[in-house]
From TrEMBL:
Keywords: Membrane, Transmembrane, Transmembrane helix
Spans annotated as Disordered: 108-161
Residue ranges of the TM segments: 30-51, 63-83
Superkingdom of this protein's organism: Bacteria
Protein's name according to its UniProt entry: Metal cation transporter, ZIP family
Organism: Sutterella parvirubra YIT 11816
Length: 161
């Protein structure tokens, strides 16, 4: 009977997760409020349920102060590791393929400007290593009507992207 109840609880948790995920698409604007209720629930459990038990078990001179300072140190450590300064543009931070794609327009003025510049739009995911000083291969038709090899007309060696 206990195994059956545990299995039913596990199935209910999975079904609730699937239902919540599908409902998220319909009520995306309610997400901040749901997160607020969730955070408040965790704070309630911590402050009302766990902290009094922690303080009740603290006996001896300064034990309660040490217990509160230990909790405060844990909060500070969490804020330092995951807090407001958490930057998403650091090496090793990999997004799922295709998760967030940016469009960049790069305009290049070449030494022999023909009255135009070359604009290139590049889409790349955050996980890709990219360089904003692109060396692009361009086929240019000059006034003499001849096509020149990529970037050789500029005196540069053609570099692979």
């Amino acid at each position: 009977r206990a195994v059956l109840l545990c299995a039913m609880t596990a199935v209910a948790a999975v079904l609730g997760g699937v239902a919540g995920l599908s409902a998220l698409h319909w009520a995306e604007e309610l997400l901040p409020y749901a997160l607020m209720v969730s955070a408040a629930s965790f704070l309630f459990i911590t402050l009302y349920g766990l902290l009094p038990e922690l303080l009740e078990g603290a006996h001896g001179r300064g034990a309660k102060t040490r217990a509160v300072l230990s909790v405060a140190a844990g909060v500070i450590l969490s804020l330092v590791l995951l807090g407001p300064g958490h930057d998403h543009d650091h090496p090793g931070h990999v997004h799922a393929p295709g998760a967030a794609v940016e469009m960049h327009d790069h305009a290049h003025d070449h030494e022999h400007d023909h009255g135009h510049d070359h604009a290139h739009a590049h889409a790349h995911a955050h996980a890709e290593d990219h360089d904003h000083d692109h060396d692009h291969d361009h086929d240019h038709e000059h006034e003499d009507g001849q096509e020149h090899a990529p970037d050789e007309a500029h005196g540069n060696e053609a570099k692979p992207d």
